[in-house]
Amino acid sequence: MMWAGVIGSPIEHSLSPVIHRAAWEDLGIVGWEYRRIEHDEASVPEFISGLDESFRGLSVTMPCKQAIIPLLDAIDPLATAVGAVNTVVPSSGVLAGFNTDVTGIASAIRRACSQAERALPTSAVVLGARATASSALAALGELDIVTSTVAARRFGGPGSVVAASSRLGISIEQVLWSDRGAVLRAVSGADLVISTLPAGVADSLAEEMTVREGQVLLDVVYSPRETALRSAFERNGGIVAEGTDMLIFQAAAQVQLMTGRSPKTDVMRGALEAELTRRARPSGGGAAS
């Protein structure tokens, strides 16, 4: 049986199986299995070495997005520049790594602005400085924003957004999270705010920030959907780019890489929304990852 899957840790509540299976069903792909695969940085090398000809692709989530890179035979230039791989596919006998988070972020922002009949943003601030923040910088480059502010607790370490910005040719102004005044000024002055922070980390900032009408937010947290950042934007006339759209668009690109066929994002979105609704019920349980 041919199979693909999502790898990371923890992986139990990943939504990738829901949206990939929906895409496969709509495309008429049968006899394939989509798996949840629990591995971290320490155990992923043994897993990769054991892949056989039945393997058709991996969606890669944390903490494996950097750890998997040296285990692959070829890396797409964009994934190399970002410093993170979220997709692995077999290609002509080798394992190739890609990053579809970039197109997911850019497409979610484009969709939100189009729906609101607003021009695309021309300035941005990114909250956070790890792998998703690096993908956000690359997405900003696709939106022709080549100078941005990044606010984070620290900027060093593996997967640093600073190294990614240099490889991408995008200039960043670094603002420490502890300098609350500087963070608030950056947020209030930007057309677009992208939060790559875990759930709850930006809540105190949301209480203090000033949101302008038409200012755009993409919060990568989508479960729970009603984050403090989102509420602040909605109360003050901001535009919210859905974190679920980021998930859908990056997964659609993964389906294309794994199957060679283009899925319908509306079908994938419908399956995702139905699953989130199910999980929101008292008997549904769990948070998405």
From TrEMBL:
Chain segments annotated as transmembrane: none
Cellular component annotations (GO), alphabetically ordered: cytosol
Pathway: Metabolic intermediate biosynthesis; chorismate biosynthesis; chorismate from D-erythrose 4-phosphate and phosphoenolpyruvate: step 4/7
Highest rank taxon of the organism: Bacteria
Keyword terms of this UniProt record: Amino-acid biosynthesis, Aromatic amino acid biosynthesis
GO molecular function: NADP binding; shikimate 3-dehydrogenase (NADP+) activity
InterPro entries: Aminoacid_DH-like_N_sf, NAD(P)-bd_dom_sf, SDH_C, Shikimate_DH-bd_N, Shikimate_DH_fam
Domain (SDH C-terminal): residue spans on this chain: 243-273
Gene Ontology terms: biological process: aromatic amino acid family biosynthetic process; chorismate biosynthetic process; shikimate metabolic process
Short name of one Pfam family: Shikimate_dh_N
Start and end residues of each Shikimate dehydrogenase substrate binding N-terminal domain: 6-88
Annotated protein name in UniProt: Shikimate dehydrogenase
Organism encoding this protein: Schaalia dentiphila ATCC 17982
